[in-house]
Amino acid sequence: MRYFLEVSYDGLSFHGSQLQGDLPTVQYAVNKALSTLLRVPIESFGASRTDEGVHALGNFYHFDYEGELHPHTVYKLNALLPLKIAVVNLYEAKNPEMNARFDALSRRYRYKIYKAKNPFKQGRALFHPYPLDVATLNETAAVLKEYLDFETFSKRNTQTFTFKCTIFQSYWEENDDELHYVVEANRFLRGMVRALVGTQIKVNKQPGSVALFKSIIESKDCCRADFSVTGNGLYLEAVNFPEDTLINISNHRI
């Protein structure tokens, strides 16, 4: 049977989400907890890779197990996992071939920025004490939905075979004393969300910022993008799958 784990985690505590030998990554911790609890070697496969420092409210991992899992599995896994990872939900896939990465319809990310110094937000959002024109930011954000090729916003030395992505949502919103960028797409390139944020901030106060942003997109030159914003302001907020493909077998929600 194929199962899906929905997990949340504090990215500051791990060397990214993807398995890297014995380094403390999210996937390493998930595999270890599953193997310990189920008493057989378990290998999980992630829906979305997050870099070191990037947080997740809802990332997914699928794995196979011959036996039937029960709701109390969530409680037992949370007891085994490090404090900075929590299982949010456990699902059974109706299709035993369903893949967390390839069958996801979309991923949604949120990037958080704050402008007044706050020691409790350090490591949880980007400190940017400079004025930003939110109306212009929303203009540049909306422009992204007009494009499919995002080579400009992909780091070099990537293993991807295509730079095409379909962006479903792209907007900025003010949230109390924070400014958030929300973007949802069918897929993302390596470093793409941070580059989208950094580049929009970079052009925000320049003359003709929207036209400039378009020219950067169309250049397909990653040297014109700004990848410098920190990862700890970034949250993988949700991974979405087709309706009625996963059966929730949890009785516990974080």
Give a topology summary.
Blueprint: E1 2-9, H1 26-38, E2 45-46, E3 55-64, H2 72-80, E4 85-93, E5 106-114, E6 126-127, H3 134-143, E7 167-175, E8 178-185, H4 192-203, H5 209-219, E9 234-240, E10 246-248
Parallel strand pairs: 3-9, 5-6
Antiparallel strand pairs: 1-3, 1-4, 2-3, 4-10, 5-8, 5-9, 7-8
Helix pairs in contact: 1-2, 3-5
Describe this structure in words.
This protein folds into 2 domains: 2-103 and 242-248, Pseudouridine synthase I, catalytic domain, N-terminal subdomain (Alpha-Beta Plaits, 2-Layer Sandwich); 124-229, 2-Layer Sandwich (Alpha-Beta Plaits), CATH 3.30.70. Helix 1 (26-38) crosses helix 2 (72-80). Strand 7 and strand 8 form a beta hairpin. It is 22% helix and 26% strand. The mean pLDDT is 94. The chain has helices spanning 26-38, 72-80, 134-143, 192-203, 209-219, and strands at 2-9, 45-46, 55-64, 85-93, 106-114, 126-127, 167-175, 178-185, 234-240, 246-248. It has 5 helices and 10 strands, in the order βαββαβββαββααββ. The protein is α+β, with helices and mostly antiparallel strands. It starts with a strand and ends in a 6-residue tail after the last strand.
Low-pLDDT regions: none
Rg measurement, Å = 19 Å
| Second-tier CATH architecture of the largest domain | 2-Layer Sandwich
Shape: globular
Largest sheet descriptor? 10 strands, mixed
Q: What is the CA-CA span between the terminal residues?
A: 25 Å
The CATH topology annotation of the largest domain reads as Alpha-Beta Plaits
Total DSSP helices: 5
CATH-wise, what's the superfamily of the largest domain? Pseudouridine synthase I, catalytic domain, N-terminal subdomain
- Please bin the fraction of helical residues: 10-25%
Indicate the structural class: alpha+beta
Per DSSP E runs of 2 or more residues, the count of β-strands stands at 10
CATH top level label of the largest domain:
Alpha Beta
Please indicate the count of domains.
2
Q: Beta-sheet strand percentage?
A: 25-35%
Mean pLDDT: 94
Order of helices and strands: EHEEHEEEHEEHHEE
